[in-house]
Design goal:
Protein name: Ubiquitin carboxyl-terminal hydrolase 47
Number of helices: 28
Oligomer: single chain
Shape: flat
Largest sheet: 8 strands, mixed
Structural class: alpha+beta
Distance between the termini: 47 Å
Number of strands: 49
GO molecular function: cysteine-type deubiquitinase activity
GO cellular component, one term: cytosol
Helix content: 10-25%
Strand content: 15-25%
């Protein structure tokens, strides 16, 4: 039951007979839940259909349903008499007004159990409608509900009349608010959307994901309303309701002269905890008193008195002159912690009364006293005083209520209290609560109705009744066993904004009743009611619409997929016509040649057809309206002369491949339907009706990849042998003696094994290969000569070939690419398997080939690599019952390839591919001796290459290669030699991954088992690696450049080579390719770990002995300004950098060579290069990756300066290898004093610099989007903005 938050975690369990009707189900659930039948929805249709016929699963299985609102209205609670007959279990669950459990929906911390919608009532009980949270619009919902529950604001909004001729209703903020308020008052829904209101603000969907301050929204919205209401009766509404006045003054303590200025306010911001204080104010009254408490200006802060003509001690403060009718208090719970440099939320306890007497804070002194003068200069002075920190601005359009200041309470001459204190009593009616931390949280509102005095919690779409105790729980402070603490992520639930209304019977208004609405509001109510009825009807249609996935093998567009949306009362005939149009079959296939069948797309299984049920409603056929179905529908097509085959429930699909051992071919699959309880003998007889002889027939089931099972037990059933919904078998019947040998030693097994291990690769060749291209030219001519006479080129050669040696490939009698005339091929196929599709071989061809007719080729799906023969538009011709019909000729075809390979391809999708160059590789295997000759004898390999397309331009550059994936890389390269034009030692093989990254495959003894169908391979010219060789990428290390890592060259290092020998081979290469003329004594090689420089390699080090090396290794080359100082592995090379606080700058990197890991030695070396006295030198280790960039605004305090350790190889330094970065400074050097502008400018520069280098900018906070309401319908698009 998800109709309310109270019941969402409860479950009702009913045990019913399978024959129970759906209407009886509704009655039983209503009885069990205590609801009135017909006022809720279960997601299934209300009908006389039984549960068993509605796809419910019997036999003790659980069937889950959701009890939801009907038409947006909550279920009606049954009366006591209706529910008196409930069983005991239903009595345990309370239905109706929920009992109070001592906590309210708005109390406690939002992350604690006490913050729950524990007392949610039906809308009919509270009488109020909630607002849907678009994403993070809780702050908006809280304010809108507060304004709606303010009678004066609501009534004034109703009295405003929208003129459609003057403004677009979509962008009119008052009109959309008016509509929203009308819906809140009259709608039957539980909650309504606010999207129309936010659209009138000019907001797009991204604004719904922005969290804003509710007080900020209040000011901005009031400002927007004032702009929209100009020249109307409501022009001064905001000021009349929310604006107060205060006096900002400075009074000379020597002569009594006072300078002042009158300001207006919309809210009063009250400080929770004074700056620098540890104790917070305990109540709103105490905070108000502190707000008006004047401060004394003395000492250096003395005030220049115009009358005394000198600087004098003075008293500066604020006095309230007038309070608004609606008084808004903002509790300033969000502050900034200067110790942690984070925003924090103050969760201190602050009480507030239900009735607030503001008379102690009012000033009724005559403003025109002869002692008092208004002074512009002093007014300007005041603008820079503390008042500006507490006031938002001087505009009356600000959204919150008053800010006030009062005189010193000890000075009786400066304050005169208003005698009529009763006129300044304010009544609390709205508390906007924030639950969360300074980093984010949730708003909701606790609001009192002026009609009956009942408090309610308006928490987005949930509205619940609460009590005064719940209001008191929003005072704040620690809750439960959690002690008080303040931090950036301290979270609690407490009041943030309070709204009071002046108690004045002459002004206090009541809510307008519906019968008292103005005529234009009555029209609007009627309009919204009609719109709601239309929505209700549309929802009813949606609720009765079946949405199911639809597939169709389109004769032209191949496999198509869509979603069929059909009303449950539409018949199967009508649904077929809808699917026919949806799949765009008009003009291609007639409607009479189409039918809908039940289909399982995952298993590619045709479950059943619907013969004789053309007039049955779809709701019955599909088992009712559901959010999702466990099956799909297939729109099946046929030729006019064909007849649809009936598919009965319980049948299984078997794809039969006929194997011809003589020609070593495997035919395309033919679909056969069988029963799981059939025996192997019966299954053979079924197949024998069309193909082969049952006596000599061998049947092999491929249960999964490389799992071939010979079905040899005659009386065993298909189910016992492991048949499922969709199956794949190979059948063979010949007079050969092959069936006499063990299955795993037979020719049949070898052929199937070869078939199952063949993969298809896309090979990209070099555009211009050196040497003779005779092989390629010959191959190209052979392909052109075998093209079909009717210009329909196809490649129907087998996926595998027997190549005894690469040299045979140039023989014209053994062409690698065979294509046959389609019609001749079709005739041969029919001759072999009785017209149902079969296999043949070309007597002139030495290679086995798998050939398929156009119709069968079309059965491969273009959208997936999974074999889809059952989806063919020629289903009936490919099934057993209609085997004598010929296949349909279709317009295009797909390249034939192994179905097993296709399935593997799908299985490989999503798998993480592994590199060919593992780190643990100890070297590159080689099948070549020093002269590049092949060591291995010619092997029995399966390899065939064909063009990717018939485009002559791509013949030389792209090949589609079908190859046994158990072939070694060495043999694979040998087979590619004729196409590349050079020997296999002169080209390299690169595997291309999904992100187009290429990695060289170098292990010649490894197979292609990690490859799968349609993987890409790029061939590049260049010397292939010999055994013990490694390809190495060389980067230049430039420590003082903005980009310290620069790629230079690819080179080859060999096992056993010294570092000096590798440098000798590398330098000529650098001179030729990079124009770098370097001396061998002025360069060093060092370890590279991503961008970090590591161990320095010494000249006498030997690769594989002293230095571990791996495939695709990377190394740094560093150019030295002086001869190498590193002579021993016991030395340590450290990169140091000086930080100058006085100039706020970092110096260049300088390398220091240490003889030991002593901190003292490091400090002595730093003293030598910097002239800083040893006792003043401080150092710190850099953080992160090289070059350990850090903002100059952070480095002075953020690093761990002068760690108390004596050696470098312990915590917190852990400097154990070359390449560590160390910063150092003079401790006596004071940091540069920066003005605010200079700091901001430097912050921008540092941010830009660090972002370019990719380093974190920790001091730059998340940029918050300003809250704006656009009066012209939306923000102006600035193309220059990001």
């Amino acid at each position: 039951d998800i109709t309310s938050a109270k019941t969402v975690n409860e479950r009702l369990t009913l045990n019913l007979p399978a024959s129970t009707t759906l209407s009886k189900l509704y009655e039983d659930v209503a009885h069990k839940a205590g609801y009135v039948n017909g006022t809720f929805d279960l997601g299934v249709s209300y009908s006389e259909m039984s549960l068993s016929d509605s796809a419910f699963e019997p036999g003790g299985k659980r069937n889950f349903l959701q009890l939801t609102d009907k038409d947006g209205e909550q279920p009606q609670i049954a009366s006591v008499t209706d529910s008196s007959g409930m069983d005991d279990s239903s009595q345990e669950r309370f239905i109706g007004p929920l009992p109070r459990d001592g906590t309210a929906g708005c109390s406690g911390d939002y992350s604690s159990p006490s913050y729950s919608y524990s007392s949610i009532l039906n809308k009919s009980e509270t009488g109020y409608v909630g607002l849907v949270n678009q994403a993070m619009t809780c702050y908006l919902n809280s304010l809108l509900q507060t304004l709606f529950m303010t009678p004066e604001f609501r009534n004034a909004l109703y009295n405003w009349e929208f003129e459609e001729s003057e403004e677009d209703p979509v962008t009119s903020i008052p009109y959309q608010l008016q509509r929203l308020f009308v819906l809140l008052q009259t709608s039957k829904k539980r909650a309504i959307e606010t999207t129309d209101v936010t659209r009138s603000f000019g907001w797009d969907s991204s604004e719904a994901w922005q969290q804003h301050d509710v007080q900020e929204l209040c000011r901005v919205m009031f400002d927007a309303l004032e702009q929209k209401w100009k020249q109307t009766e409501q022009a001064d509404l905001i000021n009349q309701l929310y604006q107060g006045k205060l006096k900002d003054y400075v009074r000379c303590l020597e002569c009594g002269y006072e300078s002042w200025r009158i300001d207006t306010y919309l809210d009063i911001p009250l400080v929770i905890r004074p700056f620098g204080a540890s104790q917070a104010y305990g109540s709103v009254e105490e905070a108000l008193q502190a707000f008006i408490q004047p401060e004394t200006l003395d000492g250096p802060n003395q005030y220049f008195c115009e009358r005394c003509k000198k600087k004098c001690d003075a008293r500066k403060g604020l006095r309230f002159l007038h309070f608004p009718y609606l008084l808004t208090l903002q509790l300033k719970r969000f502050d900034f912690d200067y110790t942690t440099m984070h925003r924090i939320k103050l969760n201190d306890r602050m009480t507030f009364p239900e009735e607030l007497d503001m008379s102690p804070f009012i000033d009724v002194e005559d403003e025109k006293s002869p002692q008092t003068e208004s002074c512009t200069d002093s007014g300007a002075e005041n603008e820079g005083s503390c008042h500006s920190d507490q006031m938002s601005n001087d505009f009356s359009t600000d959204d919150c209520v008053d800010e006030g200041i009062c005189l010193d309470s000890t000075s009786s001459t400066e304050r005169v209290l208003k005698p009529k204190v009763s006129l300044l009593t304010f009544e609390l009616f709205s508390v906007m609560v924030h639950s969360g931390s300074a980093a984010g949280g949730h708003y909701y509102a606790c609001i009192k109705s002026f009609s009956d005095g009942q408090w309610c919690s308006f928490n987005d779409q949930h509205v619940s009744k609460i009590t005064q105790d719940d209001i008191r729980k929003t005072y704040g402070g620690s809750s439960g066993n959690r002690g008080y603490y303040s931090s950036a992520f301290a979270s609690s639930t407490n009041a943030y904004m309070l709204i009071y209304r002046l108690k004045d019977p002459s002004r206090n208004a009541k809510y307008l009743a519906a019968e008292d609405f103005p005529e234009h509001i009555k029209s609007l109510v009627q309009k919204e009611k009609e719109s709601e009825e239309q929505e209700k009807r549309q929802r009813e249609i949606e609720r009765n619409t079946c949405k199911i996935k639809l597939f169709c093998m389109h004769p032209v567009k191949m496999m198509m997929e869509s979603k069929l949306e059909v009303h449950k009362d539409k018949t199967l005939r009508e649904a077929t016509e809808m699917a026919y149009k949806l799949m765009e079959l008009e003009g291609v296939v007639s409607l009479d040649c189409c039918r809908l069948v039940k289909y399982d797309e995952f298993h590619e299984y045709l479950e059943r057809s619907y013969e004789g049920e053309e007039d049955t409603p779809m709701g019955l056929l599909l088992g009712g309206v559901k959010s999702s179905y466990m099956f799909d529908l297939l729109l099946e097509t046929r030729r006019p002369e064909q007849v649809f085959q009936p598919y009965k429930p319980g049948e299984v699909m078997v794809k039969v491949h006929v194997v011809d051992l003589k020609s070593e071919t495997i035919a395309s699959p033919i679909s056969v339907r069988a029963y799981l309880n059939q025996t192997i003998t019966e299954f053979k007889q079924l197949i024998a009706q069309v193909w082969l002889s049952a006596e000599t027939m061998r049947v092999v089931l491929e249960r999964c990849y490389n799992d071939l099972r010979l079905l040899c037990v005659p009386n065993k059933t298909l189910k016992a042998e492991g048949f499922f919904r969709s199956n794949k078998v190979f059948v063979e019947s010949s007079e050969l003696t092959d069936h006499q040998v063990t299955f795993t030693d037979s020719l049949l097994w070898k052929l199937l094994d070869r078939h199952g291990n063949t993969i298809r690769l896309l090979v990209l060749l070099p555009e211009q290969s050196p040497g003779t291209l005779a092989n390629r030219t010959l191959c190209q001519k052979q392909q052109q000569g075998s093209s079909t006479s009717d210009s329909q080129k196809s490649s129907d050669a087998s996926d595998f070939e027997h190549i005894e040696s690469p040299t045979q490939e140039v023989d014209s009698n053994s062409s690698l690419c065979v294509a046959a005339d389609n019609r001749e091929l079709e005739n041969r196929l029919r001759a072999t398997v009785g017209g149902a599709g079969g296999a043949s071989s070309d007597p002139e061809n030495h290679f086995a080939c798998e050939e398929r007719s156009d119709s069968e080729v079309n059965n491969d799906r273009s959208t997936s690599s999974v074999d889809s023969d059952i989806l063919s538009s020629s289903h009936s011709s490919d099934t057993l019952c209609n085997a004598d019909s010929g296949p349909i000729q279709l317009a295009n075809g797909l390249d034939s390839h192994s179905i097993t390979s296709s399935r593997r391809s799908k299985a490989h999708e999503g798998k993480k591919e592994t590199w060919d160059t593992a780190e643990e590789d100890s070297g590159t295997d080689s099948e070549y001796d020093d002269n590049g000759k092949s060591k291995a004898e010619a092997q029995y390999l399966y390899f065939r290459a064909e063009p990717c397309s018939q485009d002559d331009a791509t013949w030389d550059t792209q090949k589609l290669v079908h190859v046994d994936k158990r072939i070694t890389l060495a043999a694979f390269k040998q087979n590619l030699e004729p196409y590349v034009g050079v020997t296999s030692t002169q080209f390299k093989v690169f595997r291309v991954y999904a992100n187009n990254q290429e990695f060289e495959s170098v292990r010649l003894n490894e197979t292609l088992s990690s490859f799968s169908d349609d993987n890409k391979i790029t061939i590049r010219l260049g010397r292939a690696l010999k055994k013990g060789e490694y390809r190495v990428k060389v980067y230049q290390l430039l420590v003082n450049e903005p980009e310290p890592c620069k790629f230079l060259v690819d080179t080859v290092f060999a096992k056993g080579m010294t570092v000096r020998q590798s440098k000798e081979e590398l330098l000529p290469q650098l001179k030729e390719q990079c124009k770098l003329d370097l001396s061998i004594d002025r360069v060093r090689l060092r370890k590279k770990t991503w961008k970090n420089p590591g161990t320095v390699f010494l000249d006498y080090h030997v690769y594989e002995e002293d230095i571990s090396i791996s495939s695709n290794w990377e190394v740094f080359l560093e150019v030295l300004n002086e001869p190498e100082k590193m002579k021993s592995m016991s030395q340590l090379a450290v990169l140091t950098r000086r930080w100058s606080p006085a100039t706020m700058k970092l110096g260049p990197f300088q390398e220091v060579i240490l003889e030991s890991s002593s901190v003292e030695e490091l400090k002595e070396k730093l003293c030598e290069i910097s002239d800083i006295p040893l006792e003043n030198l401080e150092f710190a280790k850099g953080r992160g990756t090289f070059p350990c960039d850090i903002s100059v605004l952070e480095i002075h305090q953020d690093l761990d300066w002068n760690p108390k350790v004596s050696t470098l190889n312990v915590w917190p330094l852990y400097i154990c290898d070359d390449g560590a970065v160390v910063f150092y400074r003079d401790s006596t050097e004071e940091p540069l004093e920066l003005s605010e502008d200079e700091r901001n400018e430097l912050m921008k520069k540092e941010s830009s610099r660090l972002l370019k280098t990719g380093h974190r900018v920790s001091y730059s906070p998340r940029k918050e989007k300003a809250l704006k309401i656009y009066l012209d319908g939306g923000p102006a698009k600035d193309p220059g903005q990001d």
